[in-house]
Design brief:
Elements lengths: L16 H67 L17
């Protein structure tokens, strides 16, 4: 069943000032969003770079703390050995003749 010619869908092909304003507003909004996102991405890039530098510093500090912990453990072990009389160099007259 064919539609009569009067019932066919018609497309209005006229352009009004309102249409032009609407297109300009949409393009302006898109441009504003693009510029805002661009600056936001640049700021985030700087923040990530700063965080990477801080993480490297933290890694150095943790490494130094681990080395210090090992050295402290070694000193504690030396003190324990000295308390038990181990670790002194004994000469013929006692402890290197220091207390004879």
């Amino acid at each position: 069943m064919a539609l009569p010619l009067e019932m066919a869908v018609m497309i209005e092909q006229t352009i009004t000032i309102g249409n032009i304003v609407e297109i300009v507003a949409i393009c302006g909004g898109g441009l504003t969003v693009f510029i805002t996102l661009r600056s936001t991405v640049a700021n985030m890039k700087e923040d990530v770079t700063a965080m990477q530098a801080e993480i490297k510093k933290l890694a150095e500090v943790i490494t130094k703390m681990a080395v210090t912990d090992v050295r402290l453990t070694n000193v504690e072990q030396d003190i324990r050995e000295l308390r038990h009389g181990e670790g002194f160099v004994k000469g013929p007259r006692g402890i290197d003749r220091e207390y004879s």
